[in-house]
Structures are given as C-alpha cells and as structure tokens.
Amino acid sequence: QVQLVESGGGLVQAGGSLRLSCAASGTIFSINAMGWYRQAPGKQRELVATITSGGNTNYADSVKGRFTISRDNAKNTVYLQMNSLKPEDTAGYYCNAHISKMEYGPMYNYWGQGTQVTVSS
Asked: What's residue 79's pLDDT?
C-alpha cells in the first residue's frame, strides 16, 4: 500500500506565497519522477511542475519564475514553493509520483488526495 499525503494549501492574497508538501509512505522501493498538477473548477487537470530523482525539473510556462519544485529523496517528499501567487493559480493541487514497490518491479502512478489553494485578489 502506497499513500501520498499533501499539506500546505490554504487561502492567500495575491502576491503572497505558499509552500506545498507531499510525503509518500508505504511499501516503496524507489521513486522516479514526482510532480504537482492542478485542477480548477470546470477545467482539466494540468501539469504544474515535475522533478526527476536526479533533480531535473520541468515547469508549466504559467508558473515559470514564480514556483519552485524540490524533493528530499531521504524523506520521499516533494515540495512546491509558490511565490507571487495570482488569482488564476486558484485550484486543487495534486501530488503525483511514479513508484516501484520492489527491485526490478514495475513503476506505478500514484496520486494524492489534493490540497486546495485559493488566491484572493
């Protein structure tokens, strides 16, 4: 059993900052890519940022220069530092991870339950 548990969402004024965390727990042998996605009401889920086990990052154009993704491999945790927040960043934010439960085992895709970020104007 593998779980991803997010924390750190909330209500913030435009221009403010929030830091999201997502910790993976359970039967884990290795974690490949980890990432954050978001979904606003009435819209499709979209990629925000990803990070590989080696630290290579990828960002959506809409968050480049404002958001920073990082991870602590020893803690199986990924973070999303969000600065200069805008009302259009309002969404449910979901953690994602590609996890193998055993050596040479298949990678499975896991999702967290989501954490709400609301940015007021």
From this structure: 98
